[in-house]
Amino acid sequence: MAKRHKLFPLLFPLAIVLCTGNYTGCPEYSLLKPCTCVHRPESNVLLCSSIRNSHDLVKVFNSTGNWTFFTLFVHRSNINHIPTTSLRSKKFKNILIASSNVDFLFNDDLNTTNDVELIHLNDVFFAQPFNWEWFRPLKKLTYFNLQYSSVPMLNARILENFSTELGYFLLSNTNTSRLEDGVFANLENLIELKVRNSLIVDLKRSMFPAPAKLQKMDFTGNLIESFPDDLFSNMPELEIVLLEKNRIAYISHSLFGFISHRLGLLSLMGK
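Request: output the structure for the sequence above.
Response:
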């Protein structure tokens, strides 16, 4: 069973975003049980808690007919997977799963005819090995956030499974200890990159796109002791760098000059 004490207060605001569907408002509760629907102007969010299996989800999807939902939020549930046929028919753009047990994320029959733009997985226990190829058919994916799952190493081969349109790649508490050269180099549209509260020791300029569109980099809570003078070179849009709670004791004169003239925020406080 996945841990239940993890907090996810910031998940829900992500879900309240624009959408359009065949019907306005939410379906009546009798069609939604055991899920609920939250409606905001031009936005439907399907909230499903204590789901026992994927069949429960399919029943809700079928009973709600032509209603479409912008966001699916599964919480404290046990499911086999996200039904791919319903993923397309309901036109989900956001998939959020928290504090749940999941066998695997998607069926093998998931193709590129989907609208998924955001994946947020917080404290999800996968019964089968985590498969990065799950994300290959998500050609519209721009936001990926994974928390409290083990990702010991990242390389370019793993990241090839993501759309080149990916703008946000965020990991937190994933026990990541190694980033290989070129790992993010092909993600030319990355705006924000986070590998937080892990075991990273080294950062190199060759890990990132050149030029890079990065605006924010967050490596808070790792084991970084130093970084090369050219780390932030060819990153004209970079504004925020967070390196708190690392082991950095020294910054070279040339790097400090770059930081003082270019960055809006550099945080090194805390060890």
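The chain has six helices and 14 strands.
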